[in-house]
Amino acid sequence: GQNIDQPTEMTATEGAIVQINCTYQTSGFNGLFWYQQHAGEAPTFLSYNVLDGLEEKGRFSSFLSRSKGYSYLLLKELQMKDSASYLCAVKDSNYQLIWGAGTKLIIKP
Amino acid sequence: ETGVTQTPRHLVMGMTNKKSLKCEQHLGHNAMYWYKQSAKKPLELMFVYSLEERVENNSVPSRFSPECPNSSHLFLHLHTLQPEDSALYLCASSQDPGSGANGYTFGSGTRLTVV
């Protein structure tokens, strides 16, 4: 079966750095997405990786290793507004998105 | 405002009621989706429409009935639901079902409670 694993919850301190990991086993691979979802709001697109390596976008970076079935989302200079759930999703060989259960990130002052 | 609008935001209904969820997008996207989001579970794809034709139905119970009258509107008709159907129902759209780097645009969802 297809599976996306990510930690259920993480806690970090304002101003610090946090890395949220995602491992996947899917039938084929056509890209990996990270979304941010604040409580009661829509998931919003953060990043897309289809080739190995690091994609940097401001305070957020996303890394992919296809051979290891692994990705991480790196958040720098954490702010209180970064408290949210972070969803990892992989597009499989049928171009369907397979979702992880999300990682709830709690930022403390 | 994400470009995808869902109404209502909250809905409480009895198990014998009939209600409908509405989704609207004006992004020019050709594909629309219904997802179910339950606490601590992955998003569950329910239905996919491409150019107003249903292309995917992930074995969803018949008490959920989708309707896509045009490429901008999507409905989810609900009847005789069960308490376990209580969840956040998210609508999303994309340029096409095999959308590339931009992924999906989601609405804010309808929080459904079945009593």
What descriptive keywords fit this protein?
heterodimer, A: 109 residues, mainly beta, six-stranded mixed sheet, five-stranded antiparallel sheet, B: 115 residues, seven-stranded mixed sheet
Write a structural description:
The complex is a heterodimer of chains A (109) and B (115). In chain A, 0% of the residues lie in helices and 57% in strands. By secondary structure, chain A is an all-beta fold. In chain A, strands 2, 4, 5, 9, 10 and 11 form a six-stranded mixed sheet that branches. Chain A is globular and about 40 Å long. Chain B has no helices and eleven strands. In chain B, strands 2, 4, 5, 6, 9, 10 and 11 form a seven-stranded mixed sheet that branches. Chain B has a four-stranded antiparallel sheet with strand order 1-3-8-7, with no helix packed on it. The A-B interface holds A 4, 8, 30-31, 33, 35, 40-45, 48, 50, 87, 89, 95-102 and B 2, 4, 40-43, 45, 56, 90, 97-109, 111.
